Amino acid sequence: MNNKTLVSFIIAVLVVGGIWYFASNKQEAKLETTKVKIANLPITDGLPLYLALEKGYFKDDGLDVELVKFEAPNQLIDAIMSGQVDFTSPSGAMGITGVADFKNPDKVKIYVASGDDEKTPVDSVFVKADSHITSIQELKGKKLGILPGIQWRTISTHILAKNNLVANKDVVLVELAPSLQVTALASGEIDALLALEPMSTTLRAKGIGKEILRAAAATTIANPFFPGAGAVRVDFAMKNPHTTEKVLRVFARAIKEIRENPDQARQYLKGYTPLDDALIAQASIHKFKMYDEITNDDIAMIQKFYDIFSTYKIVDKQMDFKHLLYSPTLN
To answer: What sign does the dihedral 244-235-110-145 (CA atoms) show?
Structure first.
């Protein structure tokens, strides 16, 4: 075989091999599901999902997304851990995801964090506008409303402890779904509320509540504070790497738009949260960070948050956030 023939033979092998490789990859992608179930709470953290749905970004990528609604953070993580859904939106809970992974490892990974800092907090403690209570120390003997689940019970316990109060001894914690919280404070069913968006905006704008502790978590746990997290089910990602890549690409695209034009993006809160047009204009928009944008400083802050779960004996060892952070090499 002369050199010319040998070169031709090698080229032919490479061409055939390339065709086979791309054909097999295309076939593999065809075998993946395009049906995706995403769990969500009706809060502002879900904005990237709402924007992507309304602007048809999932459909543009050939994905058929089913939005699965829940009323409590623990319900989202229960759904993804049991395989009922494939992803949670950024409205999922960072702490609950960590606890779930600690107790049943390697079933989920976090692909996005949602939160903010002291200047634009994700949470504050409110009392009724006409209440005589002016500080959190005055909540002794009172009832404090919180989101259901271990995350906000633990956060509330820590905030109270930093103010020399003992949860469920000095202050009774009352777990309430987001849709019930504003009414509960207005009616006097609870004396105070650890409120997140969109409840905070509703309380301020309608004159129902006044803040007695702003940026409660950011000032007592970590600053910035990331209570929200989007998670992907590991077995789904491994069986459907191309679909997973597409979903995360859509979320990254939506987050980029929110970051560049938050005032334009906030309109997509309508219909997905209880906010009307007037309240949407005042709603605080959280900061979102995809897995490849999370810095070492962010990791340190999230780890400080995770450490309170071992401090209050929710878990018997320190949880490791780095272990939970999504990586494309998973696929």
So the answer is: positive
Q: Is residue 7 part of a domain?
A: no
Q: From the CB of residue 260, how many other CB atoms can be counted at a distance below 10 Å?
A: 9
Residue 306: count of CB within 10 angstroms of its CB: 21
Assess whether 238 and 146 both reside in one domain.
no
**pLDDT of 14 above 60:** no
Q: What is the layout of strands, in order, in the sheet containing 172-175?
A: 172-175, 143-146, 192-196, 123-128, 209-214
Domain holding 168, by residue range, is 123-220
Residue among 169, 173, 126, 180 nearest 153 (CA): 173
Q: Does 312 score more than 80 pLDDT?
A: yes
Residue 308 maps to which CATH number? 3.40.190.10
Per-residue pLDDT band for 8 (boundaries 50, 70, 90) equals low
**Residues 42 and 99 occupy one common structural domain:** yes
Regarding whether 173 and 37 lie in a shared domain, the answer is no
pLDDT at 111 over 90: yes
Nearest to 196 by CA among 222, 217, 220, 221: 217
Could you give the number of structural domains in the chain? Answer: 2
Is 24 among the domain residues? no
Q: H-helix or E-strand containing 67?
A: strand 64-69
Residue 52 lies in a domain: yes
Hey, what amino acid is at 305?
Answer: F
Question: Is 163 within 8 Å of 136 (Cβ atoms)?
Answer: yes
Structure tokens at 90: 């950024």
Last residue of a domain, one of 194, 220, 246: 220
Non-local CB neighbours of 7 within 8 Å, separated by 6+ positions? none
pTM summary value: 0.86
Where is the domain boundary, 175, 192, 220? 220
The candidate with the shortest Cα–Cα distance to 254, out of 63, 53, 96, 66, is: 53
SS3 at position 17: helix
- C-alpha angle 115-304-215 in degrees, rounded to nearest 5: 45
Summarised one tens digit per residue, pLDDT across range 140-195 is 999 999 999 999 999 999 999 999 999 999 999 999 998 899 999 999 999 999 99
